[in-house]
Design a protein that fits this description.
Belongs to the galactose-1-phosphate uridylyltransferase type 1 family. One of its GO terms (biological process) is galactose metabolic process. Pfam families: GalP_UDP_tr_C (PF02744), GalP_UDP_transf (PF01087). GO terms for molecular function: UDP-glucose:hexose-1-phosphate uridylyltransferase activity; zinc ion binding. Keywords: Carbohydrate metabolism, Metal-binding, Nucleotidyltransferase, Transferase, Zinc. With 295 residues, the protein is of the alpha+beta class. It has two domains: 135 residues, 2-Layer Sandwich (HIT family, subunit A), CATH 3.30.428.10; 150 residues, 2-Layer Sandwich (HIT family, subunit A). It is 29% helix and 21% strand. The strands form two sheets. Strands 3-4-5-7-6-11-12-10-9-8 form a ten-stranded antiparallel β-sheet, sandwiched between helices. A two-stranded antiparallel sheet has the order 1-2. Strand 4 and strand 5 form a beta hairpin. Helix 1 packs across helix 4. The radius of gyration is 19 Å and the shape is globular. The N and C termini lie far apart (44 Å).
Length: 295
């Protein structure tokens, strides 16, 4: 079971989760076990925690090889080879509602959550069948904790929300924006860590993903897969990740981050923690990605 280990000099967290070495790895193409996530194989997984219907379209269960005690799998559909960018809007609404159910469930336990999605071996996926994962804890060290602290510092200094100011600046300057909908802005951050990194920010300021309403759910179920399809169109179906950052309290602003794996990390990133974005500036990336966002 994973636990946090902290570097005594830098304070950087690591999770020790050697149990995960036992999991099957379909992404390598070497192993070909039965797919645990396909319909009919429910007995191969742990007990169902959530599903949208008896004849399920979205299913959630505890991860068999958890990073930490609360680590769940959200299977996107019974279809083994199709994902959010291929689904109907109705199916994507079901996925978003499954995310919301789990965020709300852990929120009632006073726990923070991170939802993340890996597609492809370079992105860390070991199971091919499309799915997301959610981990929950009383708090998360690392980037999420730094974002919380910085959001509070920014608010105390400027009296406004960092992410609200960011999306408004991107829209006002017409730079870095990939797509704007009624409720969301998809754009490249000014300090992108990876080339073509994008972030999806709700226009309506809310700290917690669990607070979104039905109109935002319906819109998110269009824009989130639209972002994934943009990468697919631009980079010919690359391995990629996305994650949802959400906390329970102000002055945070929940958002979704996306990266395509179009380069590998070098020693400067790994040894110094300094990111190198060498494929395109955020401004150029925004212009290029906007061309590939589905009409």
């Amino acid at each position: 079971m994973g636990i946090f280990i902290f570097d005594p000099l830098t304070g950087e967290p690591t999770i020790s989760a050697t149990n995960r070495a036992k999991r099957h790895n379909q992404a390598t193409g070497v192993e070909n076990p039965p797919c645990y996530f396909c319909k009919g194989n429910e007995a191969l997984t742990t007990q169902t925690l959530y599903q949208d219907a008896d004849d399920w379209n979205v299913r959630v269960f505890q991860n068999k090889y958890p990073l930490m005690p609360d680590h769940e799998v959200i299977v996107h559909s019974p279809q083994h080879d199709k994902d959010m960018e291929d689904f109907s809007h109705r199916q994507n609404v079901k996925i978003v509602r499954a995310y919301l159910n789990r965020v709300s469930c852990f929120g009632m336990q006073d726990k923070e959550v991170i939802i993340f999605n890996n597609k492809g071996g370079k992105a860390g996926a070991s199971i091919v069948h499309p799915h997301s994962q959610i981990v929950a804890a009383k708090g998360f060290p690392g980037i999420l904790e730094k974002e919380k602290e910085s959001a509070l510092h920014y608010f105390n200094e400027k009296g406004s929300c960092y992410w609200c100011d960011e999306w408004r600046e991107a829209v006002a300057t017409k730079s870095r924006v990939v797509y704007e909908s009624s409720h969301f802005v998809l754009f490249c951050p000014k300090a992108s860590r990876w080339s073509y990194e994008v972030v999806l920010v709700p226009k309506n300021h809310k700290p917690n993903f669990g607070f979104i309403d039905d109109m935002e759910i319906n819109d998110l179920a269009k824009v989130l897969p639209g972002a994934l399809l943009t990468y697919k169109n631009c980079f010919k179906n690359p391995d990629r990740n996305f994650w949802i950052h959400t906390v329970r309290y102000e002055p945070y602003h929940w958002h979704i981050g996306f990266i395509p794996h179009i380069r590998v990390f070098g020693a400067l990133e790994l040894g110094a923690g300094i990111w190198v974005s060498d494929k395109a500036t955020p401004e150029d990336a925004g212009v290029e990605l906007a061309k590939f966002y589905p009409a």
